[in-house]
Amino acid sequence: MKTMKVFGIVLALVMAVSLSSCVKNGDGDDLDKKWEEWIQEVRTEIKASYGSYEGKLYTMSNDQSTTEGEEAKKDEIDATWTLNNDSTIDLHNVPTALLVKQLPESQKGLKEAVSNAGNVNIHVQMLYNYYYHSPLLMYVYPQYVTFPITYGDETHQVEIQFYTTEENSGTYAQYMMKDEATYVHKNIIYLFPKRLYMDNKLQAEFTSTAFLVWLGAKKTL
Question: Which pTM does this prediction carry?
């Protein structure tokens, strides 16, 4: 409940900023009409964004280990996800191995145990930013994922947390409805693993140089 209240406050602030920006460009009834038309366009695109998507999931790194400033794209696999009409995103069947790529060699055993756990689903709460559209910008708040692993011949519970947009500006999602003169339905999502706990004890804190990317288009019926 507290989280939803925070979301409501943020959304109100975003809309207030958007309105104040529009106020500078007109006045009176003309302004009200333009404002309503613009809001309707955004709402239309938000509604159009709902649905199932398919594309690729891959990891990227901006640690500049190759060409300076170039992001290294790796681990590309098929992926599916859903943008729901309750301001959430569900990322399906995410390999746990991609979540712990940053674990060092000194934690090789833990890394292998987590990687062998299989796939998990990641549930993401989000806020559409009314200031932008075509593409829409979404602030995202990923929920942590928990799953059991076998490590040291014992069963343990692992929890992996992610950065939110408020914590890391690189964490966000976009939806593109218009591409030049044609209509498309493309979505891209950036998530950064943040911390790993095992049995409620912190095991690792990840840097924000490596991240996961979902890129694809809405499934056609």
Answer: 0.80
Packed helices 28-49 and 2-23: angle between N→C axes, nearest 10 degrees: 140
Could you list the mean pLDDT of each consecutive 10-residue stretch along the chain, which spans 221 residues? 43 45 56 83 88 94 50 84 97 97 94 97 93 84 97 96 94 84 86 97 90 91 62
